[in-house]
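Extended Data, panel c. Modelled sequence:
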Amino acid sequence: MLYLSQVLGRPILDLDGERVATLRDVIVRLGEEDHPPVAGFVARYRRRDFFLPRWRI
């Protein structure tokens, strides 16, 4: 099982292994499911937050 506290603040790497951003939050889609699916992520780059859709990871 993966906990949010384990991944927040971790680096987001590109295909070459270079750090491109930092993970700030995880966005889920609430519904009837016991485990809501991840819709995307909030990442930080140069003091700016942006939404990163799940399909981009």
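The CA atoms of residues 9 and 50 lie 14 Å apart. This feature is highlighted in the accompanying rendering.
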